Structures are given as structure tokens and as C-alpha cells.
Amino acid sequence: xxISLAHEGLPPGVxxxxxxxxxxxxxxxxxxxxxxxxxxxxxxxxxxxxCRSSDFERGKICGVWEQPQTTGQALRISTKVLHNxxxxxxxxxxxxxxxxxxxxxxxxRRDGVIVSLAGISLRPLIDGYGRWKARLEAMELHxxxxxxxxxxxxxxxxxxxxxxxxxxxxEAERILPRGRVSRISSIxxxxxxxxxxxxxxxxxxxxxxxxxxxHRTEEIFAPNILVKDSSKNRKRATGADRSDEVSxxxxxxxxxxxxxxxxPSDRQPSWPDIVDASAIACRWxxxxxxxxAEACERLGRERAAxxxxxxxxNARLPSEHRYRARSGRKCLSGQLRNASSLLPxxxxxxxxxxxxxxxxxxxxxxxAPRTDHSFAGACLSALAKLSGEVQP
Length: 392
Known about the structure:
With about 400 residues, the chain is mainly α. It has helices spanning about 15-25, 40-50, 70-75, 80-90, 125, 130-160, 165-175, 185-205, 250-255, 255-260, 270-285, 290-300, 300-315, 330-335, 340-350, 360-365, 370-385, and strands at about 65, 95, 105-110, 115-120, 120, 210, 225. It folds into three domains: about 5-125, Arc Repressor Mutant, subunit A, CATH 1.10.10; about 135-205, no CATH class; about 250-385, no CATH class. The protein contains 17 helices and seven strands. The N and C termini lie far apart (about 80 Å).
């Protein structure tokens, strides 16, 4: 047997049928260099399914030596198209051609095992299974991020239309004609559209009179601070009061160890890092993708991510703790109903290490029996009182 063509085998439980399905899923790729044409996918699946299941075992040779004319007739394509598809697969690191160009393809089996092959070898495809699986996961994360951004852009468009301001509506139509985002798959473009639409709403919210902005990069909960009172802001805020700002670094410091393992270790985390980590943490606490998308739409991606961070932290309290988060789905629903208490909840968490919350003090603050639907609100209220936001 030719040692150079022997492969490492597929992981346990993975069949060549599931390998063929995986290749079809990753065909769109995450960039132009990873894209596979429909013809290339058809040819590769034909070669995969043309091998025996035993050929994919560790230490075996896996490949085909079917003549191009025969393959072309089976797939109803010309030999020229077939050779172009094989060249595309070879550039993508999925196959290798072990025969001399323009020579007849040959191979030999002995006792059901391939012992020589001068044709198409699938060794790169099999040995690179981990890479193909990681590419699929990256594509799924990208799709979730794109879907969340699309929902935010749509929500902002609806808010602009409800203002009934002809000037804003006309400007929004210029930014995004007909409000259609279904064909936009670029995160950068969606982020830019979101920023421009948010800027329009900020212009609408500015009261008459001078204002100063408290906006800073990589911080949230930083609204425009009014110099004069308006009907929309009765409470005066000052530039010196910055206690309501939450940075990605602060959020990461409050997260659990498992959550922090999802964040980059070679640099300070950013808000996209926090959002991506929370999207993964949804799986830990049985928060469905529709529920996560709804939270992103209603709260914004950053605030929704902080909600998941707090839920993950409280879910790691001792099992006997009164305020352990036992249902991530219900806790997220409670935070959606009482979104204004997210910041006091984070403030209260600053003073306590991971896995510890003041159970005794909570018992004094929330002594009346609570139903499931009001449990999250009670926790948030108690945390707010502890942080001094709400006076008893």
C-alpha cells in the first residue's frame, strides 16, 4: 500500500454520507476563496459516494480511478467541465490528482482494499474534516449575526416610519431604498445601515436647545445629556455622572469563567466579542434562537448580550441559592419585561465574586411569595435596592 496516500480516517460516528452533506453545506464559504461551484460539489459528492465505506477508515487509501469520459456521462457534463471542476477542488484543498496529466487513470484493489491509485485521491478531504467542520460553524455564526443585524435595521425602519416625519422617512428611503435587507449578507454594510438609521432617530430625539453628547467608543448606556430639561427627560444628568456606562472589559470581568473562555485571550474584548459569546451561551441555558433574536430586536445586541451574561453568571450560583437562574428562557423573558433594571443588576454584581450573591439580604428585600412570571422582576428590584438605585 502506498503510505503517501494513506489518510487518518474520519472521526468516530462520521460516515461518508454525512461528509458529503457537510461539503454541500460549506459550499457557499465565508469568503470568495472558499466558494465551491455547484458543479464542483456534484463532482466531489459523486467521488465520495463512489467509494466504499471501508475506504474511509484510518490508514486506508480512499479515491477513484474512474475515467473522465465515464464520470462526465454519469453527471451529464463534458470532460472539459469535469477537469475544470477537479481543478477547482484541488485548489480548495479537497482532492489531489495522483495520475500523470492526460494519462489513463488506474487503480487496484486487493481483498477489498485499495493498494494502488493513479486517479483522484480524497486524502486531503478526509484529513481536513476538522477544518470543514470549523468552517461550517463559522458560517452559522455569521448567519446568526447577519440575521440579528437585519432585524435591527428593520426595527429602526419601522420606528422611523411611525414618527410620520416626511423628512426622516425620505432620508431613510435614500439610505435604504424600499427598506429591503434580505439580500444584504455583509455584516459591515448592515452595521453601516444600522448606524445611519440610528443617527436619524437621534436627530428626532434631540430637544430644542443646546445638547452635549456623552457617546464614547465601546460603551453603552450613554445617552445624549441635555443641558436644558425637556418633556422627554425630566431628570437632569451631568457629564460627571458616568456610573451608567458599561464597557466590554467591565462586562468580561463580571462574566463566569466558562463565558470568559469564549472571549479572545490576546486582546481586550469588544462588543462584537460579547455578542458572539452570548449567542453561544444561549445553548447552555436553553434559550432558543427566536428568543435571542427577539431580545436583540427589542433591547439591541449589546444589551441582549449583557442579559445573557448575567443569566449565565446567576445560573452558576449554588443549587440551594434562592436566586439561582434555573431557567434561562424565563429569566430572559423577565428581563425583557423589565429592561430598565439591567444596569442596577450589573452594578450589584460588581461587588460580589463569581458564584456568590447576598442571599440573606435578598431574603429581606423579597419576602412575599412570587409567581414564575414575576420572579425575574423581583430579583432585579432587589439588586437595584442593594446598589442604591431604588430607595426602600
